[in-house]
Amino acid sequence: MPSVGQLLDEHAAALRSFLRARCGDADLTQDLMQEVALRVVQAAGRLDSGRNVRGYLFRTAANVWRDFLRREYGEVARVLLQVMSNGVLVPCHKISGLL
User: Fold this and answer.
1) Angle CA(25)–CA(13)–CA(63) in degrees, nearest 5?
2) Which of these, 54, 3, 61, lies nearest to 37 by C-alpha position?
3) Which fold does the domain 4-98 belong to in CATH?
4) What is the model's pLDDT at position 40?
5) What's the pLDDT at 85?
6) How much of the chain exceeds pLDDT 90, in percent?
7) Between the N and C ends of the chain, which has fewer C-beta atoms within 10 Å?
8) What's the rounded Cα separation, in Å, for the pair 65 and 36?
């Protein structure tokens, strides 16, 4: 199995696009990518080459995004996450208008 660094390098562009599409902010995207990398490094011992590693990386990125929303927007995030679970993307720069 490739190293964690190799996995992150291999999927970085797609993960960055995934997060950027959700938040709409380059600086925030970079911060979220760092959190994804940290979580993947912390989970390195649990990664298995038999698992869908790409799926794991994107699930981690989605969880980082959700955690950011919860931390930054509290109750509003709960409602937005429900909307997002129905397939609607809500960029973070539009969330501030809801507060």
Assistant:
1) 65
2) 61
3) Rna Polymerase Sigma Factor; Chain: A (1.10.1740)
4) 94
5) 66
6) 46
7) C
8) 9
Q: What confidence score (pLDDT) does residue 3 get?
A: 84
Where do we find the tokens 């996995």?
7
Question: Do 99 and 73 form a contact (C-beta atoms < 8 A)?
Answer: yes
- How far apart are alpha carbons 46 and 51 in whole angstroms? 10
Residues 6+ apart with CB under 8 A from 58: 14, 15, 18
In this prediction, residue 42 carries a pLDDT of 93
Domain ranges for the chain: 4-98
pLDDT at 43 over 60: yes
Q: State how far the alpha carbon of 62 is from the alpha carbons of 73, 89, 97, 99, in Å.
A: 16, 12, 22, 22
Give the distance from CA 11 to its chain's centroid: 13
Contact, 60 vs 40, CB < 8 A?
Answer: yes
pTM of the model: 0.76
